[in-house]
## 1
Amino acid sequence: MKRVLSVFLVLVLLLSATSCNKNIAKYSFRYQSGASDYDTEMYYDDSFFDKPSNTYNPSLATASMSLALASFASHDGEYINKSKNAFDLLSKMGFEDIEPNSYFKEKPNSDSLGCVFGHKSINGKQMIACGVRGGNYESEWASNFTIGNEDTFDKYHKGFYEGSCILIDSLKEYIKNKDINGNIMLWMVGYSRGGGICNISAGRIDESINEKDNILGQDVSLAKDDLYAYCFEAPRGVYYDDEFYPKTELFDNIFCIVNNNDLVTKVAMKDLSFTRYGVDKILFDNTNDIDYEKDIRKVIDFFNSYSNSSILGEYSISNFEMKGLKDFKLTTSSEYCNWTQGIFLEDFVSHLTLYGVQTRENYTQKLEEGLREILTFVFSKNNVSGSLYDLLLSIARSMLLTDSTDLLLDDVLHNQSKLSIDLDIVLMNALEQLKVDISKESVLRAVKGLIVAIAAMVLHDLDFAILFPLMSQSNFGGLAQAHKPELTLAFLRAMDPLYSKNPVNYSMDGKYYYIEIGDTSADVSVTYKGKEVVKIENGKPVETGSTIAYGCHRIIRIYLPFNNISEYSITSSSNDVKVSVFDYRYDGCTPLDVDVSAKEDVYSIVLPMSK
């Protein structure tokens, strides 16, 4: 009898598991990418919202990215119908009264924002879904570069804050027009610019919930546990200082999914004190995932499965190489092993900010207006890449063919104070030859400001090849690929049990050990579970077949994926060692005390655990 009951219970459990799995419905949807719309599929169920919003749900993250993709402006049809992909997907998921805001029905301008809403009943409350347009938004590109000055926009990136005002006002209008009242739930998603605006909007709503000021109107009530915000590849848009830090528990229901290799996620710049609201969930790379080589294969399989995979091209970000100049030819630098695109971009953006741009005020006065003018002009054209290419090529050609080229080079090397004056003349002559409807004066300021900033950055450290990697065609392709939304979706699918039988098991905390060794002639060896993953002989990095990133420029730098039970063994011929742990909760490195023991001029280094 007991045996029969046991079999019966097993069958019940199997049937209930099967039944539960069947409830997770699969929906097809379309999304815009490049010059066309494409089809793919996603899983969705109302049960994704059963847990409080500050509990990260990988399946809700994948569904959110799918909705964010569908919220791109469709390539097909007139402006009045550009939100049709989001409309169709929300309809399939059971949402009603689906409606875009007014900006989604007309041609975008430099500071507009498109978003689309729908609502349905979940757990006795009205759930409002909000998808923010994050792709194919034309002239809105200009807003991305509108940081604003500290006097009027001290707490925010101006362009993203103004976008959040449009989003919140549109949401309030939708709630009023659809006569929604009582307790509500809110699901907000956005990608890229849409992710940055979604991030600020969710942060402002969290603050209003905490302060009980009903930013969404008096007829509705929203609890923090019912606000679900997922922001993908979002730029930084929130200013922080000693008095305000937007990564506290107050904002832990806002999740920012970040690819370290994506340049967009590194602006506005950390060195100008910008960050994001909420919790950064970091996609894996070889700085933070010891199983990266195996795990990335699963991502690549998903990336290659899209119907537009031939246009996306082969995954190339892992092929990034640091470059140098030898005999006036671009060559792979022997000083670095497995250096990542993300590490390079972090160095590049930091150097450009600290030594080139220098201050937020400098940026707004010398760069902002001209960059807005250029981007508004470029992205108002049908052929965006062609427009930008033609504009920049015309300026470059006019500059390089002038007799003043040698003069400008001499200014850069020997007389930087005169560079700005000489650039005025050369650039104005170049712009006068362009037959385009564009403000010559503002573009002049922007291009000149960029050249002066880059020159200052390079001159600060002439022997640091910070620009050379950008001159590599293969590297440049990886920079563009890192911001493909299909790649973000592939990462999420690889970690989601609804899409993968054996999903990648990765914490998404992005933590890693950062090791500095001051003696650049040192011998260093790092083993992991008995296998050598780092080898440096007399200060020269040696390839080990590992994906661990390490290199030497004035200091030896080693990046090791963090684990709570250290299985690394480190030896060095130098005891000049500093160890820290990078933690995205604090947007920086925390120094750790290092236990170093010596035996016959060989130092063993024990990695401490972070607190």
Note: The two ends are 54 Å apart (CA to CA).
## 2
Amino acid sequence: MDKRKFLANYESLVRLKLWADRRLRALGQEEKGKAKGIGIWELDGRRALEFLSVSEPEYHMEQDQEFREILDEINSPKGREQSFLGNLKHCFRLSVAEELCLYLAVLPEMEGIYKKLFSWLNGNPKKTRPTLETAANVMGFNPLLRSTVREEMGERSPFVLYMMEPGWGQDREPFWDRELVLDPKIAEYLLGSQCPDKGLAGVSRTFTPEDQRESLPRSRYYEMLLHACHLCGLDRERESRLRKPVKEQRAVFLWGAMGCGKKELLRQLAAGTGKRILLLEADRVAEERKDLQEALRRGVREAVLTDSLLAVEHYESLKPEMEERFWEEMRFCPDPILVLSSEKPENKQGSEICRIPVHVENPSYEERRKIWGYYMEKYGLPTKEQNRLAAKFLFLPGQIKKAARHYQNSRQVLGEEKASLYESCFAQIRHQLYERATKINSGYTWNQLILPDSQKRLMRHICSQMENQYKVYEEWGFGRTVAYGKGVTVVFAGSPGTGKTMAAQILSKELDLELYKIDLSQMVSKYVGETEKNLASVFYEAELSNAILFFDEADSLFGRRTEVKSSNDRYANLETSYLLQRLEEYEGMTILATNYLKNIDDAFMRRMKYIIQFPFPDKEARTQIWKVTIPEKAPMGQDMDYDFLGERLELSGGSIKNIAVYAAFLAADKGCVIGMKEILEAARYEMQKTGKILLGKDLQQYGYLLEED
């Protein structure tokens, strides 16, 4: 609190108190001469009159030149800086009558003796504040002034809305019998308190010009926001709307996805204009079960008192019936009004609200890189990952900040070696892919993937393209010449069990990206338009995290389009065409796995950047698969013959994995090591699933192992 300002305000209150005491004493002397009862409250009122500090028996306000001088001094530009009453009158354009009503209403807050005095003058022991009738008598109003006061103090006037307690005048009590009961915030303000409104605690925050703790370099949207604010009257005299609202309200709609940096722009606006910004969070008002209208009213009043811009966040959370009330409460708020929303504003025909939109788009690669650089320097993160993180995670500024802070905390708790910047990034991803897809965690390495060298080279090219997207499209400028199709689309074709899913997992691990296997049962719908809707949802959610989408058995969804012979054919072709469009728009990686490459539509094949064949493994490949499938730490028998298994058992990699796992459980049950006997028993069972019979005579020197059973 400013002590000098507090003392100056107190001095002005004392001077007004002397005037009020003289006038109340004169009015009290008149009341003494009237026939009154002798109730305790009346006696208390008469005793209170004797304690007033003025001894003049006769007093007439119209002859009080000193009173006029006091008001002129309080309401002068210099006086407004020292007197909170003068500032209230100036900010809310109060009349002299309203100003004096405010002062009379605050007297019981200054000294308790005034409650007894007013109850006597009101003629009602329950009314301890001045009624409008008593106030009019104290101020010596004639009939003309009384009619003016009645008009000025209507239910929707600024005086009633912002000065009086909530609900004042709604009990339908006769106008002149209403008590002047101040809102607690106004009473505290008049007595010198400069504390924020307690009614806004927990549902608001303030950005000040000095608040630079988290300020990023100005974004490209700052000038757009500043220009929009000027269009809404940022340079006009702010109090011009308080007594006579304009016909058309102007509001700046700052809209964009959550976390795109709207509040950061408010912080920059506060610093750039030197204006405080009071941000009211509409969604938290609902959480705290507070009345939105009352919160808005308090917000408008606080913005006017502190010469702040008023901003309201989460406008989209307002129900339609609340929007009209919202703008009704905003009618006295000085322009510009700042509205933050995640949805684009609608300019409704015939509306009295002019919405000036400022769309904050998701940051580009270069903007993400700068934001990562800022927070890396701020939190002491390794800067070598700056470009890679900016290209890999299509994060909003808010997500980048949270990821950097999460990593800093993890490093303090887990240590430098265990903390992972990528894990901190994944912790910020919020999507609903799990509703229509299954996340696949990867533990495989390149050594475990047994493929011909040419196919492995293609897979490494895929990783290289994903890693260097930012360099080619952004630094080298190809992004301006390639309008769409920037993503990486891959087809894995081959028989079941040849390693397609494993390869997808390896790419996921190599690129540090999440892998989601799409559940086709959640995609395809018999209802027209539902399949496209489901696909749109999947791609939208994937864009939030740049996840790898893995369509297994892709030919069932990406099948060939057919000649239109019925409405079913037409809608099926529409689904395929829509999927083609979304594949080209998606800038991440999409993997299609199929057992029947020829069944996929030719249009898809032309758009695929990589097609990798997964051949059925030959003898050498099968031998390698056997060796990498069984872990080194597993207890192996001396008779294990990998060359024999690779030569005699013509199986895919998936079948070999099943046999190895089954054999391990057989050995664990027997309490022995994994030997050829357990492997061959598991192989016989695995081959039975496909209708094949493994006989002892087919196993040459190891045939006796099965004949023992």
Note: The first helix runs from residue 3 to 32.
## 3
Amino acid sequence: MKQIINKLLAAISAVVLICLLSCNEDKGNYDYADINLLDSINRINSIYYAELGDTLIITPRLVFSHGDDKGEYTYKWYYATPEGGWTQLQEGLTFKQEVAPPIGRDVTLLFEARNTQTDISYRKAFSLTLSPSLKGYLALCEAENGFEIDVVSFSQSKQKFSLLKNVLAKTESTIPRNGVKPIDIATSATWSINGAPTANKPDGSRYAVWLLTDQYTTRLSSIDFSWSPDYDIEASVEKSSYLDTAYIQKGKRIIAKKIKVTDSEGRKTWMYHVNDAGEGNWFLYQFFIPARYFANPINVAPVIESGKRWPKGPRFEPSPYLSVNSYFSSVFYDKTAHSFKYGILAYSSTSTNTFANAFFADNFGTEPAGGAFSFSDPDYEDCLYMDETLRLLTAPDGCAVMKLKSGGYKYIRFSINSNATSPVAVDNRKRASVFPSGSAIGNMKFMVNYPLSYPENPYVYYVTNDNKVWRANVSISPAVETEITSQFIRDGYNEVTAFKYLLPQSQRSADCPASLEKGLAVATFNPSLGKENGGKLEIFTLKDGLTGELEIAKYPTDKELEDYPRADGYQVTMSWPGMGKIVGLDYKKK
């Protein structure tokens, strides 16, 4: 037994000796190095906020155990799919990506650094939240077989404008567009009543975007321009109302001809609708307390029942134009009686001006002598145009262009109180100016009043059906018309497709530069460039208040740059060719 053990120990000793000799013989044949570990990933925030169209740039700072990656690492960026997986976006240490699909909405992203020697990966996840602060000029554009939305956006952080084309495509909007003809676009604040483009499903947005087409009327989310069927106008109709029984219960769509937001915060939204019999009616949607949805026509006369006035009287055929003064009053034109009517709306849940006497249009009654014109002039044949001259948070003036039975036209300017005590005071009837028969104003397709800080602005501007542009001095009678077409129709852009004052608000914020508060937005079209790129948007401001001359705006203005120089030297002429064929315009705040 002892001999066996001795032999076994000798064998083990021999093996150990051989191993030692082998190691000694191979000395220097191998180059050993420590693994270069990634100790930390820095400069990647847990959450990023970006606007649609922004370029998100992230360059992480990596700390290695041996100074740098020594070529041992590769870098990739991923986004989380709705199904729960990960899809690669790009390679490289620096992440540079436009905020558009596939990351055109809230999403989780992932940075990965992989060691090629060990195949060990180091990862850091973070989230991107789409900010609802995309703001700027919204342009509804007619496409070859549908429509798109282009935006000239204003970045509050960068204080710059940029053109963002094809927003619906970039956000992968599901809204039906093929074969749909666009009509107009409008923005309205949602307030805290619902905080969403739908009446009953909050999504956190403060603004909604109304979209009018020949096949449906709906809203889009102001956050990412997404759409859902419950954003359609049918979801904002009172049960058992006229619109409900005549349309929704019969499975018919409600197609709005016009949407009008009464003030900057969207407390009330008006809809002009033409029914199957060809009758036009105005309806009201009220966000502010008391909240009410679209329901019954408000172009009806009041009826007294139990000592209260109710909107149950006969309807009249209203003009498709409306002038809204302050938050609570409005002016209609009665095409049936050839005279004006006014409405006073409820403005609080405790107001005596509640539903019993709010949703109807009343006669002006006996007018005092001495005013510039009469609201019930027997010479009125039709109303060609009506709007506000100033869209302020305080009561603006209204204006209208009347076709006269005796021939010619009359421009009138007025204001209406916020209550029914003196709607036709002499001071409320401010101005009248006659245009002769054959005047260009009788052929107009667009018209605006330039909103200035003083109330006696003497100029109006309009575009006729032959795409000529005119300025008229209405401080005298007859009015003096001056053609100014060449300032707008040039360089092959031979059609004016939209003509609208945007942002004429008296109380501004960083949502828009102060120098552009009262900008005239003019959209023109060059058919040789096609509907995709043949549109142009230009913003004009008043050059001279005495002559009414306009000029293309610059931002910042020369005076602003002189007073507050910019380190980046940025200045843009407010003219953007290469847009789609614009048929509707509005300015969207965040």
Note: Residues 162 and 413 are 37 Å apart (CA to CA).
## 4
Amino acid sequence: MKGFLYYLVLFAICGLGPVYYFRKTLGNPRLIAASFFAVIFGSSILNAVVLTAGHFGYLVTGRNLHFYGLATAAISVFYLMFGLWRPISVRSCSSPAAELKNFPEILGRITLGDLLVTLILAVFYGYLVAINFTFYFPKWDHFTYWMIDAKSIYESGYLRKSADLINIFSYTSYYPLHAVYLFDFYGRTVEQCASLFTLMYAVLGSFIAYYTVKQTSFSSRILAGFILFVVATSFSEQLVTFYADVVSAYSVALFFFFLLREPVLGEGGKRLFLIVSSLLLLAAIKSTNVYYVAILFVVWLACDLRPASLKKFLDPKEYAGTHLFSLLLVIVAGRFYYLKYVWNIKLENSPLIVMNRLETDPFKYLVYIDHLFDFLLEQNTIMCLLVVIAVYQITLYKSLPKPSLAILSAILLLPSLNLAHYVLTQYGLQSLSILRYVTTVFFLLPMYFTSLPTRPAPRFYFGARNICMLGWVIVMFYGLVRSYSIVGLPIHSGSYEGFTYQKTFADISRDIKAIVGKERLLIAGNDSDIYVGNMRMTELPLRYYLSENSVAGLYRVPKGRFLDKLRGTGVEFLLVTTYNDALMQLLNLETTPAGVSLYKLEPGDLEHPKLLRTFQ
């Protein structure tokens, strides 16, 4: 926990200067809001600095990591002090009592609705922190990319340079770097503690969504808070896992926050910089988010570049902050340099065989769509409610103000993109990932409902609305508590190796490391009589724990091409995890492995591996 708190404070310090620089664009936030904005800016800036340094081939752990953090914090503090400095002659000479009287104004006006919403969310997120330190949530995606990338960076000190370990994903290392921070702080892998960063972005996303609410009435703020709480519970296990979906949703909310800010005279360039930066942040989290960025870019053009205001938008006075775009150019240039000169794709002669393909029968798509929405209705009622509301609201587009229409467009288009992808490429509901992929817009819900024009309503309406929302909260919270009972469970070590169901894999991996030393191995598992692969949960944890030795990443290749892949890796050992008739016959294995079997490969004679040891 102390490592996370250290970086939370570091983020805040790195963001102090930017908050002061953008204070007018942000609406001159008071102390509490400014603290949240400091973490928002600081985390983005420090991550961009470390990622860019890695893109140019520099070390991103150890002394270099501390240098990046302290240097960024020092520049931020220096700029803040320089901006706050005033000659003594023009400073206020008011008494301490007068200054103390003005303190509530500095702190920011807090209404009863603010206090109630803050209390509910604080208790909820505090409960999730307790869950994070009690349960383990290492699943398929942890071992396929997010954590294995972080572990690879931590072990090597640099961003990954080849496809040896990860050859199926094109995601960036922006989010895995958060885990690297903690690994470097503790000097060991503490994967579960890294999930606290997911909770941090969930809190920041809630803050952005709530801060965007412009109505100050008690009823509207309570409504926004209840929606936020229901949205948070609908994220389910994502809030206590190290996936990038929550931070992607936070980035979308951040984009709309900047987009919906009223332009301030002379601040147009700064506002434009923040809008573009939020889009780049979204693209940096996952390379597949570029499709989201394209949609949001069109939404931005439709919402912001109105013909009537085009002349004002192009006014040179509005571009006082355009020099900041040179920083964005450095970040983008670093990414291109990395892909051109640092990233070295290997094993390209043995490509991954992707089994998804388009169907020729349109009727099968209709059946699948029906199954898909039945699945979503059962697993995530909030998502289906969102679709129904969005479809209904789009019929009222003529009466919607432009900001509301912009948010509604994102609510409709972003999940539809992923749903269409699944309909076209999946044969069945073989992955729960669809539940995560449709949550990108969840923080937009309270922003949308509170952006609608207010209309007179009968008095009983407000009472019924609040009773319904309270019912939603009770039902959702009961379901969450029932699913994650933490009574009497011990606090874990923060490492996957301490998890009961991972201990077997961790023990086997330690024994294998003692045998192979620094040599490399290839993991092969059971797939079918036709294919050989290592994409099952039997192989994935072993590949993770053996990341220093394992090569070839994830693959599924035809039996006839497996030997080509084996030759292309140049490995010295072969690890067979499950019984596979095709593999046994192909390699003339000495015995049928009852468990995990380690074989020594003789140079020039890959067809006759020597059995070294079988692990149960």
Note: Residues 87-96, 348-356, 456-461 have pLDDT under 50 and may be disordered.
